[in-house]
Every structure is written in structure tokens, then in C-alpha cells.
Hints:
8-stranded mixed sheet, 13 helices, homodimer
Amino acid sequence: MKPYKEWDREQLMQEYDRLRAEYEKAKASGLSLDMSRGKPSAAQVEISRGLLDVLSSTSDLTENGLDCCNYGYLEGIPEAKELIADIVQVEPENVIIYGNSSLNIMYDQISRSYTHGVMGHTPWCRQDKIKFLCPVPGYDRHFAITEWFGIEMINIPLYDDGPDMDMVESYVNTDPAVKGIWCVPKYSNPTGTSYSDETVLRMAALEPAAEDFRLYWDNAYNVHHLYDDRQDEILEILQCCKEAGHPDMAYKFFSTSKITFPGSGIAALVSSEANLADVRRQLKIQTIGHDKLNMLRHVRFFRDEVGVREHMKKHAAFLRPKFEIVLSTLEREIEGLEIGTWIRPRGGYFISFNSLPGCAKKIVARSKEAGLVLTGAGATYPYGKDPEDSNIRIAPSYPTEEELIQAMQVFVLSVKLVSIEKILALD
Amino acid sequence: MKPYKEWDREQLMQEYDRLRAEYEKAKASGLSLDMSRGKPSAAQVEISRGLLDVLSSTSDLTENGLDCCNYGYLEGIPEAKELIADIVQVEPENVIIYGNSSLNIMYDQISRSYTHGVMGHTPWCRQDKIKFLCPVPGYDRHFAITEWFGIEMINIPLYDDGPDMDMVESYVNTDPAVKGIWCVPKYSNPTGTSYSDETVLRMAALEPAAEDFRLYWDNAYNVHHLYDDRQDEILEILQCCKEAGHPDMAYKFFSTSKITFPGSGIAALVSSEANLADVRRQLKIQTIGHDKLNMLRHVRFFRDEVGVREHMKKHAAFLRPKFEIVLSTLEREIEGLEIGTWIRPRGGYFISFNSLPGCAKKIVARSKEAGLVLTGAGATYPYGKDPEDSNIRIAPSYPTEEELIQAMQVFVLSVKLVSIEKILALD
């Protein structure tokens, strides 16, 4: 297809009218679909139902003699630590198991740093200004946490191989107010890209001006591959940091929310022993411990890391065709028109679409008008402000394939209409 | 028995030698028992095993159409709110269901007040000094939270009908630095006493100098009666506060940790709609929501508040004889000697023993020497400092009855030995 901008005005007007009619038809079909979050579909969630049979009233509720149905084991049961450690490629002593939400763990890290400081350093609430680097586009809930604590967020461009490391180095290594960077190193939310080895090594080799600087390493999509034969793998950050002489520079976050039941999984903080010792001081004040029966359920359901990988293949079987629907629709309908770009991810939950500058909000609004709710434009940027108004996060997991085909129809119509309006300066 | 202090010196020396021999014998028997926490016994926990059969892979995981095995319902499922609301005598809109730990909810309230303030008021970290009133003896984990945040704790004597309300009023109504009071209004930890109606009404009628003052009302033992025929009931605090013109003055905390499985239950924050609106601002940043499948399990296991009450009778059947062992041993061995006082609670998990002043630490140490670990002396006071060194928390729930008989033997021997040492000024 020829780029729209090369079409003559009349052709484009005709195309616009044709698309407009199609759009009105689609709108009239009464679509009502929420694709705003990276939520597994109902059918997909079903594959974890076996987890509910693992424990019954006749089960042994001890594991190596440890009673999982009474108080104790503040940091989680050893078997759960082992399982998570294997998945995230560290040692069990680097793991503390929490409740069901890794987001909550991230919140806790920031909150504790704010109230009590990191490993003896001045609490952030007693420091003048705290800044975080935010690779963009990124995860809205990360940005929401730092915004909630009044932390100044600095946009860092995210490329196919990771954040702009020149920029990261120049901020981190010179400005003591920069205390952290939000990273989704693998199958990034929303771009689906993964950090290259060079990026990870440069992260580990940072020489922060602030001693309480940490990498906030969100391993949300660690085992969330779409394909058997094409998978991203990244270097293990704790090990890299250790080798670079910064053993305490990373907090790694993990949860099974998109492995078993969203909201009913187990989550973990993964870090150096010194960092975990710092965390324990708070943990023992904060809680009597997390749900050990749910840990036991997960341990017995998966047995080991191989069990998790096998389970993830079942998820992929649901997700792969949906990603293909989105990608093939974009290729068929948008490719060549030069009104948008996107990446073909090998894992994760999202496809990131970049429209012509200044069009994202309008595309999302246009889609909504026809019954398709997308993640709000701008949500992938700190403060909800995409300076280009270009990035849109597509979350294909929740709808059925039939709904998704319909949804993508609405989406590409919206993209085309808004793009033509921009090119023709119609609005 | 005649009070020890009225015995002549020689009698007392003889008694001491006799007790000493008995103690050495007990010590040689090799007892090794941890009675430091209010932990249900292994057999007692078994009664909740049915909870593990409620959900299986073939269960309907929706409740009134709401999907409990996917993301969503940040505040918990409506049915769980209804169940908890009925138990704690409020409306469902006054309830937010959290994870497994009410302690964690309390931590969150303090932490959020510290970082973001209460309903628009200046965050505590930006105020000069924050103070909390601490009825004593009280719960060590409450005091640990306030100490962690550098909050000055002020001891308030706890009487049989509640805290010294004259003192509470004089602090709260005049000092704007006083932001809260830790209350365990029913079957208090550790005294087992409950607040009288007058105490609750005076609490609700406080006119705090600080607008961000709140009652931190820990309903830990709300349904934890020991007897069918003798039960404490207290006035519902939210309603009392509302009627007194202070609808937002109380945060109430609840969990099922000592109802179903300790550490694998559900917990709730109960408060006015305005307070909950304030909490929600944080909650949506902090987490994607708590474990709804565990909420569903609890809802279906109990069906309603009556189900909970019936279940609690089974707990009482385990606890009652243990309380009786402690109380009858104290009555048989200590009564009349004037070396200690205690209260006969109708519920809860503890019996609070007050030794002669200056003896508690020694009694605990003496017990430990013979293999019996008690809650550390002083733990029931802020900063671990019992000014009288007199209060000891006895937690009879965990040991078997046989172990408890042995343990109480060690305990009364320790009490007697240390008391005679004090009276004779032997040490």
C-alpha cells in the first residue's frame, strides 16, 4: 500500500468517506469490549483450576516438617523460595515470598525507602528531591507509585534493546537525587521488547551518585513466552550486579499472577542478602507473614521450574493466536500506509502501537465511541502525558478471538480515520 | 494459704528449698515448650480443614456473576464484605477486604498517615511530633508499628472496664500531637478484659485536638468467646462515633486468622465511608487487589455470621480446658500467697499475670531455664519497658493439655521462687 501522505487529496477524501461508513457500521454492531488491561481471558484462566485440587481437608499440610497452616515462616516456606529461585535464576536465600501482588511489594519498597531509607541512608521523606528514571513507554502502575510519593519522573526512551543507556548513565552517575529506575527487562509492558545483554551489563555497571539508588527490576513476564522456538532470554541482574561490584543495586520482583490465577498467586522480592536483611527489619513489623497454604498449593501444583514452563506453554497456546490476530490485522490494514508502527513481541501481554504524533488520544476516543475500550492514551507515560501523543497499548489477551477480530477492525478504522483527519487537517 | 510476706523467715527458707528441689526436678524432665505467642494448637487448627474442600477444579468460581479467579474487585468480593460486615455489626459499604493479615492493614494505616496524612491533613512525616496512647498492658505488635515510625508512645493504664478514660480524654482533647490510641476493645491482649459501654461511649465522645486523630480499634477477638453462657459484648464503635458526631473517628480491624487458618485467612478494614474513600486513593496505587479465591472459600465455608459463631464454638472447646488449667493452677498454687494477680477472661487468647513488682523478667528467665519460653517480660509495654516489671502474658493455646500442666508447674514454681527471693531479698 502506498503511504497515505502520498495519496492525493481527493483519493484520501474518498478513502475517508468509505472508512467512515465502515466505522459507522461497526459502531452500529454494538460492540462492547474492555481491552484496557492485560487480563487473561476466562478460558485461559481455566488452565490453572488444578491448583484448587492440590490441597484438600485430607492433605498433609506440612512440608519437610514445617506446618503451613499455622503462624510462622515470615518469609515464606523454603519450598516456595526454591521454586521461585529456580524460575528467576537465583539462590533461595535471595528470595522473600510475599502475598499475591508484586505491585504491592514494589509499593512497599518505595514506601519503606520514603519512610525509613535504604540500608541506613536518609529516608526519602527527609531529602529535598527524589527522582526516578522511567523508560517510556512503560507500565502505568509503576509510574502511579512514584507519582503517589511525589517522586519526579524523568522519561527515558525505550528502544528495542532497552532504555537509552547513555541517558541512564548520565543521570544515574551524576545526580544523587536519582534513586531508581523502573525496568521491565523482559517482554516489556507495553512494547514486548527485552533488554540486550549489553543493556543489562551497562545497568549493572552503573556507578550511581546516590548510594541508595536501586534498579527496580520487574520480572513480570519472566516465563511468558509466546513461542517455543523464538524466546527472549536476558542476563540475570543480581549476578551481573555482583560481578560489576554492586551486589546490592537491584530489587527484582516476581509474581505468579499471570501464571496461575490473577490476584490469587504468590509474589516474591528477590535481592541480595544485604538488601533482604534491610527489608526484614520492616517485614517483621508489618505482618505476621503471608499465606503459606497458597505457597504450598503452588509448590505442589508445579513441583519445579519445569512444571512452570510446561504450564506456560498452555498460556501461550491461548495468547499466540490473539497476538497473531492483532499483528496480522495491523500488517494487512496499516502496513505501508505510514500511519503507525509496532513491534512483533515474542512474549508478554501487549503490543505497543505508535500512531502519527498527536493522534493517540483521538484514536482511543474513536475506538471507545464504537464500543472498544483501550488503555487510555498517555497511560504508558509518567503523569499520563505522552509528549508525542502517539503510543497506544493493545492488550489482546482478554477478548475471545472472535471479539478480538471485531475489536481490531474498530481499531484500524479508528487509526485510519484519525490519521487521514490529521493529514488532511480536517479536525 | 497465708501470704508469703506473713510467713516467718525460716518457714520461707524451708519453702524455698523445697520449691527449689521441685524446680530442679521439673527442669531435669527436659521440658521444651514455646508459649510465647497466641498460636492455636495443631489440633485446633485442624477444625478448619473443611475450608480446603470448598473450592475444587470443578467449582463455580463466580459469585453473583463476579469472576473470582481473575483481576478485579480491588476492595474484595461483595459476599465477603457482607459476611465480615455481619460479624462486626456494620454495613458492607463500611468494609474493605484485604489480604491475610490485619496487622498489615494497621501498618498500612499508620504508614499512609505518615507519608500522605489522614483525609487531607498534613502527613505525619511533615509534623514535628506524633504521639499515640497505648493502654497497657497491650499488644506488642501494635507498639512495634508505632515505634517503627518514631511515634512517641504514652502509657495509659488499662483497667477491667477499659483504659483510664480521664487520662485518655485529657491527652486527646488537649494535645494535637496525639493522633491515635491502640485499642483491643474485646478480650484484650493480654488481659482478656473488655471495654464497658461507658468506656466505648467516652471513646466515641472524645473531642480530639487533632482532626486526624483516630481510634485504632483492633477487633482481633470479636467472636472469640470461651463460654456459651458467659460472653462479653461491646458497643459497636462506628455507630457510637457517628451518634457522638464523630463519624470518621475510628478505624476498625478484623481478621479470620484465629477463626480459620492463622496466616491464611482474610482480613478487613472497617470504617466510615469518608475514611474508606481516603484509603481507596492509596489502595488503587498499592495493589491490584487481594486474593478473591480465598475470600470465596471463606464465604462458602461459613455461609453467614451464624456459621462463624458455630465454628468458634469448636475453637472454644479446645481453648476452654486450657484456660481452666492455667486458672486452676494459679488458684491452687498462688491464690492467697499475695505474690500475683490475674483476671479470669471470658474470651481471647491470653491470661495476664501480674507478679510482685520487679519480678516479671526474673520469672520469665527462670521459666526459660526450665524449658518454658514465655512472652518476654516487658513485651506488653511500649519500648518493651514495663515500669513495674510485673506483667507476664500467658498464652495457653498452643501446647497440648498435658504439656500445659507441666508448663504451669514450671511457671508457678518460677513465680514462687522469684517472689520468695524478693521477699527475703536473696538476690
